[in-house]
Amino acid sequence: MDSQKKIGKNLRNARKQLDLKQSEVAKKAGISSNYYAMIERGEENPSWKVLEELFKVLRVKSSDILP
């Protein structure tokens, strides 16, 4: 599994632990729902700024998400 897919899988797991929908995470992070869904599927390579926002929304450390 490549890094993008691992990051997406870890983001999905963190989101589900908080019982949030993709659209809720995306809105709080200031990105579109489609873009967030693509990140979770490993189809997009988000910028560090976007990742930092996602970490805040999901209340995780980068070491919890990054491979």
Features:
67 residues; mainly alpha; globular
Structure characterization notes:
This protein is mainly alpha-helical and 67 residues long. The protein has one domain (3-60): Orthogonal Bundle (434 Repressor (Amino-terminal Domain)). The chain is 69% helix and 0% strand. The protein is built from five helices and no strands. It has helices at 3-17, 22-29, 33-40, 48-58, 62-65. It is globular and about 25 Å long. The mean pLDDT is 96.
Anisotropy-based shape: globular
Number of strands: 0
* Helix fraction by DSSP (H/I, runs of at least 4): 55-70%
Major sheet description: none
How is the CATH topology named?
Answer: 434 Repressor (Amino-terminal Domain)
Euclidean distance between termini CA atoms: 10 Å
Report the top-level CATH class: Mainly Alpha
Reported CATH architecture: Orthogonal Bundle
User: What is the overall pLDDT average?
Assistant: 96
Task: Please sum up the structure shown.
This protein has 67 residues and is mainly α. Helix content is 69%, strand content 0%. It has one domain: 434 Repressor (Amino-terminal Domain), CATH 1.10.260.
Fold blueprint:
Layout: H1 3-17, H2 22-29, H3 33-40, H4 48-58, H5 62-65
Helix pairs in contact: 2-3, 2-4
